[in-house]
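Box 3.1 A note on notation
Throughout this textbook, protein chains are presented in two layers. The first layer is the amino acid sequence; the second is a token string describing backbone geometry. Keep the layers aligned when reading.
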Amino acid sequence: MAGRVLAERRAGHDVVVVASAMAGETDRLLGLARQVCGDPNRREADVLAATGEQVTVALLSMAIQDLGGEAVSLLGHQVRVVTDGVHARAHIRRVEPDRILEVIGRGQVAVVAGFQGIDEVGNVTTLGRGGSDTSAVAVAAALGAQSCEIFTDVDGVYTADPGICKNARRIARISHEEMLELAGGGAKVLQFRSVEFAMRHGVRIHVRSSFDDGPGTWVVPESECSEQPMVSGVAIERNEAQVTLVGVPDRSGVAAEIFRPLAQAGIVVDMIVQNAATGGSTDLTFTVARADLGRAVSLVRGPAEVAGARRVQSDENIAKVSVAGLGMRSHAGVAQRMFELLAAESINLVMISTSEIKISCVVEASQGERAVRALHDGFGLGNPS
């Protein structure tokens, strides 16, 4: 990466690098925390986890210097990546780029620690898994950069996970909105919040391989996408779980009381389905990240009992499969085609959710990959054999 950086400098570009921790390092650090106590304090866990990026920015700066370049490493508090105070999943409020501009103004490369920031009172915060992508996009937006290149272990965004669909095709150009829907559906190439930030601030992202110089995938505003395929890609999310409240009284205000504690605890609810009321009651089902399942069940049990629900049950044995594409706005029958393809494989749909350019279905976990392959082939997304 030091060589790539210096090649860009020789081409006449000012370069800012945002580095993540080395592979497995954040897990190792948090593992140390759990050895000390079973439920580490989140503030102290953030202080610990942020050291992974401190190591990489120092080493990368040294590597650039060793090749004859000039580089300065900067941590989140030195740049002033200011976040809210939610530890382990903080949101960036602003990036103050003055220190970076000083560094590049001297002809040096600024090597910035991703994943970390500080809150308004100076506490170290981290942005959650994949947060270095968000850091990079936020820095690019603050600097008005021409583009934000994300170097990763794949050479772009594919029509599906190549590990599931061997004929998956690399997409040359995709809109922010489509990428946002695919990331929300489980595509792991880019973190959801990084795409959300890029779309809000108009940042052009180029997803590229760390291991070769080939072209990747451009994630750009919709105005730069001349083609609008009916379906651009298929994604699968395996890390969700569902909670069902059985026999919820059908009266105004009950749903608000049930979801209030989840919102106050910062638990993100994805899909929500409420059955038609019969006999004065209904069943209410929603999905959350699997890691939040225990807390979610605990938080809704009280309001559910107060409301008069019969029971609360949960299920981790699910997968969410989604198709997304700008062309859904102008093509009828995408949902019907999706349901026909899944029915042909005898795949039962547990939940269905739609947006303007995405359709998501919850299926049994054991059927998830088969559903992805059926949709990928059925919508003709793969490379021709």
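The chain has a mean pLDDT of 94. The first strand starts at residue 16 and ends at 19.
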